[in-house]
Amino acid sequence: MFAQKQSMKRRQFLKGTVGAASLVALSGCDNLTQSSWFPGILSKAERVTETVQRAVTPQDALAKEYGVSDISAIFPANGNTDPGTEAYAEHVAQNFSDWTLEVAGLVKQPRSWSLAALKELPSRTQITRHDCVEGWSAIGKWTGVPIGDLMHQVEPLPNARYAVFHCADVDDEGIAYYESMAVADCFHPQTILAYELNDVPLDIPHGAPLRLRFERQLGYKQAKYVMKIELVESLADIGGGKGGYWEDQGYEWYAGI
Ligand SMILES: Nc1nc2c(c(=O)[nH]1)N[C@H]1C(S)=C(S)[C@@H](COP(=O)(O)O)O[C@H]1N2
Ligand SMILES: [Mo]
User: Fold this and answer.
1) CATH number of residue 234's parent domain
2) Residue 39 maps to a domain
3) Is residue 16 domain-resident?
4) What residues sit around ligand 2, an ion, with C-beta below 5 angstroms?
5) Is residue 85 within 8 Å of residue 171, measured between CB atoms?
């Protein structure tokens, strides 16, 4: 079932965006070299574990940031590229004016923000590389609100260990996409809820209106269509209990690169 899901996703990806062969062909006019479209770092052996990353780099070590000239001409869209629910279609029709981000769970002051309210908060812009396990990478410029700023407002309780990101999209079986990270990583300066890609509001394929950027982690951790952040003590009771949609199907929870 895991393998079947995998190949289905891959077929969808190849059909829905551009095939691997055309990605290679495109790389000539892109700023990425052919080898960085298929980075060796994606092999598990070369990735780092949580313990190693925390030991060798300070928790607030920054992911590499690139220059404007490095931005990829095409940033592929992958996974779900439209939640496709009635509720989401309604938000699209209203240009997300009623979209809210709720932050709840183990916090002193649960609260919600409208998209407009989030955009009034101080923002951060970063040009970073996204690495998908399906074998492609792309560099994009993300603008959004640092999640640490939201955390300071809600005040996590001492027993809050993980932040769970709940998304608007569901798969064919009705299972919702979700992801999670340690609460400590929410305070990393590059951990943002992005609302712009390359200076324009996020489009639907890339996760409109809000998507996570959790740099130094693989693509599947970068949750799109984020509606709610829930702080919990344990991941065991959320979804399939492994901390994320793909983790529940066997992917590593800690996807450090
Ligand atoms: N909600 C949601 N988030 C998601 C996915 C998804 O299917 N649904 N796919 C993940 C995967 S595997 C990747 S590589 C990136 C793709 O982001 P992009 O479409 O902006 O390239 O989103 C991640 N976040
Ligand atoms: Mo991915």
Assistant:
1) 3.90.420.10
2) no
3) no
4) 132, 219-220
5) no
**pLDDT grade, residue 51 (50/70/90)?**
confident
Give the lowest-confidence range in 25-34, 120-129, 194-203.
25-34
Q: Is the pLDDT of residue 30 over 70?
A: no
| Alpha carbon nearest to ligand 1 atom 9, residue | 79
> Is residue 117 within 8 Å of residue 101, measured between CB atoms?
no
| pLDDT over threshold 60, residue 244 | yes
Is pLDDT above 50 for 12? no
Residue 229 sits in which domain range?
Answer: 63-248
Number of structural domains (the chain) is 1
- The confidence band for 24, taking pLDDT boundaries of 50, 70 and 90, is very low
User: How far is it, in rounded angstroms, from Cα 192 to Cα 128?
Assistant: 12
Q: Decide: 76 in ligand 1 pocket, CB within 6 A.
A: yes
Question: What is the C-alpha to C-alpha distance for residues 225 and 211, in angstroms, rounded to an integer?
Answer: 6
Provide the residue type at 180 as one letter.
S
Q: Which tokens belong to 112?
A: 């919600």
- Confirm whether 29 is domain-assigned: no
The residues that bridge with 121 in the sheet, in sequence order, are: none
Nearest ligand to the CA atom of 222: 1
* 204 has pLDDT over 70: yes
**Distance (Å) from CA 206 to ligand 2 centroid:** 12
Answer yes or no: is 51 within a domain. no
Q: Is the pLDDT of residue 223 over 60?
A: yes
Residues 6 or more apart in contact with residue 138 via CB below 8 angstroms: 32, 72, 74, 75, 76, 129, 130
